[in-house]
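User: Sequence recovery, please. Input:
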């Protein structure tokens, strides 16, 4: 299906249906960003906090910066509880 045919099909929609589609898209996108904003304590830096946390870092709220966290993970051959002799 090409972009031209999609646009032609959208052009034949009644105005009320088009308005409902646009309103739904706006509400979904707005709801997503509001949820991120609320999760991060209504901080104005919520997008930066989310980016930091998803990249494996830790957000320092006092300095308003991302701190990278490097955790050492034990492998199974280095004495993990699930390793076998």
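Assistant: Recovered sequence (85 residues):
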């Amino acid at each position: 299906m090409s972009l031209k045919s999609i646009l032609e099909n959208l052009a034949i929609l009644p105005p009320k249906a088009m308005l409902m589609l646009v309103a739904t898209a706006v509400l979904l996108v707005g709801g997503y960003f509001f949820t991120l904003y609320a999760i991060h304590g209504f901080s104005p830096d919520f997008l930066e906090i989310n980016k930091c946390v998803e990249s494996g870092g830790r957000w320092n709220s006092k300095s308003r910066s991302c701190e990278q966290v490097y955790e050492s993970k034990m492998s199974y051959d280095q004495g993990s509880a699930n390793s076998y002799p």
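The two ends are 58 Å apart (CA to CA).
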